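name: query_chain
kind: protein
chains: 1
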Amino acid sequence: FVANFCGWPGEDAERSYRRAMSYIGLFKISMEAEADKVEQVYTYEDIERVFAAGKHAALLSVEGATGIMGSREIFREFYAAGVRVFGMTWQSNDLCASTKLPEGVGDYGLTDTGREIIDEGNKLGMIFDVSHMSDKSFWDVAPLVKKPLVATHSNFRSVCGASRNLTDDMAREIIRQDGMIGLNFYPKFICDDPAESDIAALLRHLEYCLSLGGENNIGFGGDVDGTSGKYPKGLDETSSIHDRIIEYMLSHNYSEELVRKVAGENYLNF
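structure:
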């Protein structure tokens, strides 16, 4: 996924829309400039074709939906531009509440406008991302979607109590829908004491997902931009983060079959 952020704190909707479309424009320019290495994909058939050509595939997604201004028409613009995964919130907005609620505001969940966007997304075939959604928003959205939910960068609250992480019931619902959960590398979402975060601690979240029956529903989520350069001990940006996790797993008796699933096979199957 290539995330396009749409909704800074305090930013008005029109400005957010202009910035989001400008990011999409820059993304497409980059795709043209690096066409020999990477290509934007819209469908699974595109992914197969691009991989067969020996290139990387980039799927456009949105985190935070302030920029669609509650409009079905603008939402369709994003889909036409290639957005296939849509996170409705980062900060709480007019679609739904996030885990970041304004002071004094309760968890209001999914709004009527949010329900309209879910309805439109179901018609288009959009995949909805529940990372950052409040608990009530999650449970309001879960029964409405036609495609399985994804939590692109969320860990497990039973392992680390951060509100950004999934409860057991949320994780089970995503697994029941045959959706996907992406492991988040941010230390504050790995351990209650971030100083204790390392690769082994990150993999405790993987083990927990396996205990819930999610072997086919777990992958890497990263949140590489969102970590602000902070990673579990043993990981940094001097070499491939994913490769180092894979090497660690293989050297600590995880099966090659499971490693393949977590490293990308589950996402491709999804």
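note: Residues 13-33 form the longest helix (21 residues).
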